[in-house]
From TrEMBL:
Upper taxonomic lineage: Bacteria, Pseudomonadati, Bacteroidota, Flavobacteriia, Flavobacteriales
Protein name: Por secretion system C-terminal sorting domain-containing protein
The keyword Signal appears for this protein: yes
Gene3D superfamilies (UniProt xref): YVTN repeat-like/Quinoprotein amine dehydrogenase
Coiled coil regions, renumbered to chain: none
Database matches in Pfam families: PorZ_N_b_propeller, Reg_prop
Record keywords, A-Z: Signal
Top-level taxon in the UniProt lineage: Bacteria
Statement: the UniProt record of this protein carries the keyword Zinc-finger: no
Length: 800
């Protein structure tokens, strides 16, 4: 039926075109259409996509036979149809670091506790309520507000924290009392609480157990809490008209109100201790034990039983006679109680980690690397064993989902950061290592690790210790970028010959910076940008500001520094971008600067940057302000409409107009699905306009409308088409040339929308000039290139 309808109105298409299209093609109209998004509500969040990892799970809870599992800052559960549903920042779950979760069957809410004391309450309809009582009102140091455990009784939830116990009333969904139960009313860590026989038991951080009458209205008074046992205990749980306790001697005991009875032995300190309706479940790092009320151990599952790869355990539960184990590496393990050997893994598709560092979008894949370095370019992990990070490389495509190059295949290359694809051979990829050199991939298989041993005298170099240690190898490579000739340029930190090139002929060349740079031996570098003249723009960290170099002009170097030497606000240049009009945008540790044209390098003897001055209304007065004054600019990315996406340290992401005078979006954790305000890297899909954000707490994307313009109008397409009643988004018209003119009419030729493209895509909200929603029907889309010579027509069906 649909095909027949389109065929029928094709017969009148020519007449409409003659009446409306050709007069339109002779005119030029400029309409700036600003699509301002309020990042709240499920409808708006359809513009966002989350790409979270669920390998590392730290907490579990259950709702009947449904198990909820929590990663660092997201949740998932399996629906009855087998589909894995995720709850992430895109759904409003703006977690900090999840430490405990609990589902209340009586009130049908899911409680999510965090390391900073934030309590999130997920309602039955999926909305998320933020309860900041602990975060903002409990007068203890921020580092002591961790929520360790939830225990529900009689409409109240008792939150075990690092300072004591807080009470959350489920009826009002508000905090009420806080109990400091340490000696003399001191703050003390509480591991777990349980209620049994009208008494509330609290296992304390010093492994003692205190108790009090749960109905006592004066529990805020520490003297109402008495010592139950001075031994060393790890956990307490009510279970089938009794209570069970786990002791530091490695045994689980039943408490009958007067004495303890041994139930079973574990032999290891627990990480998680809980009971279900029928079972006692105890988790250590190496084993999970499930016992019945009589103390008979039905399951004793060890990490060695899982053979595909090494794992550690964080929590476990039993639902519908199935054991679920939260692991630190492979998501959720599940197996029937009766058949532990029938183990399978359960987790949504996603990357390996929630700490992406650098991104690279190719034609069909998104690559993610994790080998981070610090703000001062230190690649060493500050935690034991104090080595540079050894992580896999992930890549995503829409057909296959997530895949990886595992750590066993990366030739032991550590701190893998920037990735670049050979423009003349898409199957050849180079990945910089900020410790080991450069890793070469061929057809996604690591084949060569370039280092000081195989690149010759003009190749890669290791930094030298004082005094020298020939056995120490530390090759810090960053800033990979291809020029128009197909040569690969890079920087090598902590050496005199810090600028290097790998020619497409296979030859290596180094440039000695000893008499050019200030102390090149100590310099570190950001990501290189190369302009259309093959000038290399190189951010430096320590003393040289922004460096511009072009070997085609007698190895010419120019420096943009502070003061009269370039007007930068800081010598610490974090990033540089060349926009679509060949302007240079410079992000520093203390603000933003621009150069009006990269071409100025060719003839200039020096370069002076300038700030972008904007007008802001402050206290009713219009004041001139410097854009991003004194802000740490982490990354700048230019989209197809020449707009700039700018990441600021701890301040989220801004989208500004091509000249920087207008802020179009400001995305933060507070007003958008960004899981963190620290965005390490921004990458744009030039075909679809999707903008990817690598934050320190996960990867998300925003479906922006600015794509790279096409060379002609041959590939213009419209989506979605048809627009069905349930669709609440906009219609996208993509594949446009820059400054193409678009007019949309109904079938009778009445104009309902017109605009001029900035980039390769425009959006239509299916209204008549923003006044009212257009009716069902077929709408004609007339498109003309800027010069009016090339034209095309498309159509879209709208069904209300």
């Amino acid at each position: 039926m649909r095909g027949g309808f389109f065929y029928a109105f094709d017969m009148i298409l020519r007449n409409i075109a003659l009446r409306y299209y050709y007069p339109f093609a002779m005119k030029k109209h400029l309409l700036i259409f600003l699509f301002l998004v309020q990042c709240v509500g499920a409808q708006t969040n359809r513009l966002w996509q989350g790409y979270f990892s669920f390998n590392q799970l730290g907490a579990l809870t259950q709702r009947g036979t449904t198990v909820y599992a929590a990663s660092e800052n997201a949740l998932f559960f399996q629906k009855p149809d087998g589909f894995l549903e995720t709850i992430t920042s895109v759904n409003g779950l703006k977690a900090e670091n999840i430490t405990a979760i609990h589902y209340s069957e009586a009130f049908q809410v899911l409680l999510v506790g965090n390391s900073n004391g934030l309590l999130l309450v997920i309602q039955a309809d999926g909305t998320v309520a933020f309860k900041n009582g602990i975060l903002t009102e409990v007068p203890v140091p921020a580092g002591q507000k961790r929520i360790n455990h939830f225990s529900e009784f009689d409409g109240k939830v008792y939150l075990s924290t690092d300072y004591g116990i807080s009470v959350f009333n489920l009826n009002q969904q508000e905090f009420s009392d806080t109990y400091y139960i340490g000696d003399g009313g001191a703050q003390t860590r509480v591991i777990q609480t349980t209620v049994y026989n009208n008494s509330i038991y609290a296992v304390m951080g010093n492994f003692r157990i205190k108790k009090a009458a749960v109905t006592n209205p004066f529990l805020i008074d520490f003297s109402q809490w008495v010592l139950h046992d001075s031994g060393f205990w790890y956990g307490a749980q009510a279970f089938q008209n009794q209570s069970v306790f786990f002791n530091a001697d490695g045994n689980v005991y039943r408490w009958n109100g007067t004495s303890y009875t041994l139930l079973f032995s574990v032999g290891q300190p627990p990480i998680d201790f809980r009971t279900t309706a029928d079972y006692i479940v105890l988790t250590t790092a190496q084993k999970v034990m499930v016992a019945n009320a009589a103390g008979v151990v039905l399951v004793n599952y060890n990490t060695s039983n899982y053979t595909p790869q090494p794992v550690t355990f964080n929590a476990a539960t039993v639902a519908d006679e199935t054991v679920y184990i939260a692991t630190n590496e492979v998501g959720l393990l599940q197996f029937p109680i009766s058949a532990p050997s029938n183990v399978t893994t359960l987790k949504p598709d996603g990357p390996d980690l929630n700490q992406p560092f650098r991104l690279k979008k190719t034609e069909d894949k998104l690559f993610v690397t994790y080998g981070r370095f610090s703000f001062t370019y230190d690649p060493y992990n500050p935690n034991p064993p104090f080595q540079p990070y050894l992580f896999p490389i992930n890549y995503f495509d829409k057909e296959q989902g997530w895949s990886k190059i595992p750590t066993t295949d990366v030739l032991n290359a550590r701190s893998l950061t920037s990735l670049v694809v050979n423009p003349s051979n898409a199957n050849e990829i180079f990945v910089s290592s900020y410790f080991s050199g450069i890793l070469k991939l061929e057809d996604l298989v690591p084949t060569t690790l370039f280092n000081q041993t195989n690149t010759g005298a003009n190749g890669l170099e290791s930094l030298q210790l004082t005094p020298p240690d020939p056995s120490y190898v530390d090759i810090r490579i960053n800033g990979l970028a291809y020029d128009s000739r197909g040569d690969l340029w890079l920087t090598n930190a902590y050496v005199d010959k810090g600028l290097k090139v790998f020619r497409k002929t296979g030859q290596w060349q180094s440039y000695d910076l000893t008499n050019i740079f200030t102390e090149p031996f100590f310099e570190r570098y950001g990501q290189i940008a190369i302009d259309k003249n093959n000038t290399k723009w190189i951010p430096t960290y320590r003393a040289n500001g922004l460096v511009a170099f072009n070997e085609n002009y007698s190895n010419k170097f120019l420096f943009v520094k502070t003061g009269t030497e370039g007007n930068l606000p800081s010598l610490d240049v974090r990033c540089v971008a060349i926009d679509n009009r060949n302007q240079v945008w410079i992000g520093t540790a203390r603000g933003l600067r621009t150069l009006s044209s990269a071409d100025a390098f060719i003839n200039a003897e020096s370069l002076q940057s300038r700030p972008i001055i904007i007008n802001e209304i402050i206290n009713g007065q219009t004041l001139a302000q410097e854009l991003f004054f004194e802000q740490v600019v982490l990354d700048i990315c230019v989209d197809g409409a020449n707009r700039k996406w700018v990441s600021l340290a701890d301040s989220g992401v801004f989208l500004v107009s091509p000249n920087g005078q207008e802020t179009i979006y400001q995305f933060t954790k507070e007003n958008s699905p960004l899981p963190s305000n620290t965005v390490n890297d921004i990458e744009i899909d030039g075909t679809t306009g999707e903008v990817f954000f690598a934050t320190e707490k996960g990867l998300v994307s925003f479906k922006a409308n600015a794509t790279a313009p096409s060379d002609d109008l041959a590939s213009v397409f419209v989506y979605p088409n048809p627009v069905r009643p349930e669709y609440a988004g906009t219609v996208k018209i993509a594949g446009l040339t820059d400054k193409a003119v678009i007019k949309i009419t109904d079938i009778e030729g009445n104009l309902v929308f017109e605009t001029t493209a900035a980039g390769g895509t425009i959006e239509w909200d299916t209204t008549a000039f923003g006044k009212y929603r257009v009716a069902s029907g077929v709408y004609m889309i007339f498109i003309s290139a800027q010069d009016g010579i090339e034209t095309t027509v498309r159509k879209v069906m709208i069904i209300r």
